[in-house]
Structures are given as structure tokens and as C-alpha cells.
Fold these 3 entries.
Entry 1:
Amino acid sequence: MPDHPLKLSAGHLLRGAVRLRCPVCLEGRVFRDLYNARRNCERCGFFFSRESGYFLGSVYLGYGATLALALVLWFLLSRVFGMGWDLRVLIVLLAFVLVFPIWFFRYARMLWMALDLYLNPPVSEDFDARGR
């Protein structure tokens, strides 16, 4: 790994985020299971969590996506389908805001990592043996 930052394109980073793969090599899996992330990429050795609390920003991404999609869903149900504010709309919205964040958790983390790596490209220290 060179000493200068490895500049990754936005498309490259988004491909990794959508596939839940290492944002650097696009091969290694980031998550062992639904919630537990690996410390390093199994292929290139990239250290996923750069510092303590690194993924805190992903909470904001998840919350923002949930809120935005819930508003779109409310608009569709109430205005397009003419359901107004009846109990069915509230039940659908409640179910959505409870289930969507659980499913989106990993994607929010991957998008946060992609944003960080786009703004702060990885350097050789990000590939050391901290987590091995």
C-alpha cells in the first residue's frame, strides 16, 4: 500500500456499499452476520472502524432515510390512495418505522463508510494489523 492516500471514486464506493463489500477491494465481506461487522477486510486487510465511535454518524443516515421514506409513504397512502389519517395509515407507518431501520442498519453503516472514505481516502495506516 502506498504512503499517499488511495483515491476511490464515488461509484466504486457506492458499489461496495450496495453489495455490503469492502469499499476498497469490493471483495471482502464487511459483516459476519446481520449486525456484527468484521474488524478487517478478509482480502485486502483494510481496517473498517478507523476510531472509537466511528459509525455514530450512520445513525443519522438511518434516521434521515427512515424519516424521508416514512413521509413519502404517508404522502402516497394519504394523498394518492386517498386513505387520509385513518388507523390503517398509522399502522402501516408504525410498522415501517419499526422494521425499516433494522433492515437498513448495515446499509447506513456502509454509506457512512463510503462517505468518509470519499472525503478522507485510506492511507497505509488503514491497512495495518490492528484487528488481526
Entry 2:
Amino acid sequence: MDQTSPGSRSALHDEVGARLRAVEQIYTAGRRRLVDALADQDRPVTIPQLVEADAGVAVSSAYRNLAVLEQVGAVERIHSGAEHVRFELAEALVGDHHHHLICESCGRIEDFTVPADVERRIEQTLATVARDARFAATAHRLDLIGTCVACVAG
């Protein structure tokens, strides 16, 4: 599932380019390919999955370029166990607030959303926790960690 429509894909590239320029980095063709490959995914993916999705993405430069894209807030790294790291476009860029189901066995990550009223209650609860702790929260993530159905069955 494509996370961005054709018109918003252009806006996505404009925003990523601006973020890179702000730290004196260039929006190279390789970085653009990574952003496109991530935008085409419906869940967080590993570097090998990105390479498989777009043969033009080189493994050797993917690690370096994803680190730069993460540094400027265009990409988020999600850890799903000791050996599993996956990447997705930053929520702020795609406007898609979601949470994750993380399998500790295979590392698979699935996105999920909750109904708006539940999300509001989560935000209210977290705002209370932050206020009581004198903490200035800017966002939240909710990750459910466990075992996926394939690993339970296998």
C-alpha cells in the first residue's frame, strides 16, 4: 500500500530535501530512492526488504543514507528485538499516526491504529503522566510486543 499519493509524493520529497539542506546535506538520488521505497511499504521494513523492493537501492549505501535520513527526522528506526531493526518514514512527514505490533521471535512489525476516541484517551492519559512528571512530551508511540500468529503456529 502506497503511503503517499502522487501529489503528496512531491511534497514529501520537497520536505525531505528541505530537512537535508538545513543540515547542509544533499538529497541524492540514492536517498530519494530510499524515501520512495519506504513510501511504497505498508509496514516498517528491513534494509534487505528495501533492496528487494528496489534493486537500485544498494545495501552498502542504504545504512549510511538511512542514518542521515533518520538524523534529519525523515525516517524512524524501530527495534524489534536484538537482531531486528526496521525503518519507516517519519510520522510527521506522512501524517499517519499509528502504533506497532512487534514480534519478538521473527522481528516482524505490523502497523495498527486505534479509534479516534481511544487515541484521545491515550493522549489525555499520557499528558497527565507527563505533567505529573514535569516532562514536556512532544509525541508518543505505543508498541505491543509479543509473538505473531505465524511464530505461535510455527
Entry 3:
Amino acid sequence: MPTALSWEHWLEDIPTTGLTVERVADAGERQLIAAALDLNACCELSARYHITPLSLDRYRLTGELTAKIEQTCVVTLEPVAAVIADSYAATYWPEAAMPEPAAGQLDLNAAEPEPEPMVGGKIDVGRIIFESLAAAIDPFPRRPGAVFEGPLSAPTASEPESPFAVLASLKDKR
């Protein structure tokens, strides 16, 4: 499944000492990210990460991302700028060694996330960075000082509370 960031590394290009990379998303990638995450704009995205070989043909990814984005305020509908800084980690296993999916509920408090598969001899770092960015975004952004005031008029004591109260008052008049 293609993502907005196709940042992949071939396994044979990763030295035994590990691979450290700094990446900056270009304008096209930032535009795809903004569209995929329903942002007004993704102004900047950079990531620094390290891929470490482990035993049994497995790899460990650790890194940090920073991004500058623009969203729409949920109260005023004006633009809201945000700076995001987040870290991420993943373990990659060969497809043949992947464990069977656990039946039942997902353990959100697990010490280690479930391993990611290495597909086609590559590690897809872009997907992990994209998902980490998506998880770090405020789902309800607000401009500083923006306050939701609610309905324009609150029901008064003379207004009925429900449609059945109106019917009850008609019955009483008979």
C-alpha cells in the first residue's frame, strides 16, 4: 500500500553497524501528507532515524520527527499553526517469521509494538513516520483564546423541555 512518504531502505544497503539517516520531505510529499491527513498545509517535515540490525535477520528502527502544520480551528474555522515533535520506534521481521495475529483485544499497554514485516527485501520507514505524525496531530485544534459559546439561546423555564410536554399541556386544557 503506497503512502505519502515512500522512504524505503534495501536490507543489503544497511551496514552491520547500522544506518543513520536525516530526511526532509519535499513539497510534493508535504502536499500528499496534507491531503491524506486533512490539513490546510504541511509546511515542514523532517526526520532523523537509525536502523540497527538485530539477530535472526531482524531490524530495529528508532527516530524523531519534527513538523510544522496548519489546521483549521474547530471553533472559529481560522487557520491554526502547530509544531509537532515526536519519537517513534519499530521492529522489522522477515515476512516468514512474522507471528500469527493475536486474537481478541489489542494490548495498548504492551512494552513493544507488534513487529512490522519486511516486504520485498525493504524496510518501509516512510509509513512509520507518516503514522507517527498522524497520531501526534491534535484532532481538535483551537486558536488561542477561542471559546465555544454553545447555542445562542438557552431554553427558558417557560419553554417546554420536550415534545411530549407540549402534548401533555394540550391534554390538560380539555
